[in-house]
Amino acid sequence: MGAALTVRGVTKSFATPEGGEVHALKDVDLDVEDGSFTVLLGPSGCGKTTLLRCVAGLETPDSGEIMLHGERIDQVPVWKRRVNTVFQSYALFPHMTVERNIAFGLEMDGISRKDTIDKVNEALQMVRLDGLGGRKPSQLSGGQQQRVALARALAKQPEVLLLDEPLSALDLKLRRGMQLELKRLQRETSITFILVTHDQEEAMAMGDQVAVFDSGEIVQIGAPRDVYLAPRTRFVADFIGEANVLPAQWSGDSISIPGFDDLHRSLIVGSESAGEFVAVRPENVIIEQAESGNGTVIEVLFVGGLLHVEVEVQGSTVSARQSSMVAESGWMPAIGDRVQVGFRAGSVRVVEA
Ligand code: ADP
Ligand code: MG
Known about the structure:
Blueprint: E1 3-15, E2 21-33, E3 37-41, H1 48-56, E4 63-68, E5 71-72, E6 83-86, H2 98-108, H3 113-126, H4 142-155, E7 160-164, H5 172-189, E8 192-197, H6 200-206, E9 209-214, E10 217-222, H7 224-229, H8 234-239, E11 244-247, E12 249-251, E13 254-256, E14 263-264, E15 268-269, E16 277-280, E17 285-289, E18 295-303, E19 306-313, E20 316-323, E21 338-343, E22 348-351
Parallel strand pairs: 3-8, 3-9, 6-7, 7-8, 15-22
Antiparallel strand pairs: 1-2, 1-4, 4-5, 9-10, 11-16, 12-13, 13-14, 16-22, 17-21, 18-19, 18-21, 19-20
Helix pairs in contact: 2-3, 2-4, 3-4
């Protein structure tokens, strides 16, 4: 397993119409293993599309290097890069049949007529559209059009397939189905996939590795589970899953969080130098009924077997998740209840601002 794609120190700025400058990518490094599924995750405007466009050759980085299987490609023209992109908009030719849409790029590459027919059929089968090759895009549903766009890109057997929010135009149910399809296609073809999304659940479900973007930088990269369990920054803790992020201050061997009992260093994950905030997942927050407690219940929701409880502790809102079984133990939290709020040992993580 070598590197399919290597990005080193890529920077890209744009001039804004107002005369300012946007730093869309700031010194981005990325390593993508051959045959893997990488997800670029981040909120809108954080530079995900710009990075894909730099890899595809649709933008030129201001500085930095991009290597495809070890070969520098950042100065290579678009059509010579063995990279294909699937856009959110599908970008199908409306006047051509499905078959022609897929065949077009292959013929441009000089592939023989016979091989083209074979590759078109194979690609249609792969995305489960066999039998619909004679239709025009307008005679297909949104989900089917998306499959055509995928088939067209896969037929060219790129070294890397770039997918820019390919599922965001689909409704939730179709989307979940297509996520599974994309995972299957990636496994079956062993083509390296790089998918952009702003949906953290999608990223967690699909990626072998997830690169989290914040304002033009990759702030953390790793297996979904590792990023979830060990967020490095406040932003990552908040963006991936849910987290209570609270201000914290070190004093000697313990940390104080306003409204809570001081916590000894041995109960905390992460080093002192890491920052002035702590993040705790709601499932690691413990609440107990206590008249002289540190918090007041301000919201209680019952969601799929879990109690979502919001508690106010000295000006901060803390979210807790508990199994609804606590109700059977005799106490069901209610709005206005006084409670003592604490954290499970080892679940409080120091994060960077
Ligand atoms: P994302 O895909 O994560 O939503 P983009 O890569 O599209 O983000 O954009 C990153 C930033 O660069 C945004 O602030 C966007 O407005 C800006 N930007 C992108 N392309 C251009 C362009 N061609 N001209 C000016 N600004 C751009
Ligand atoms: Mg984008």
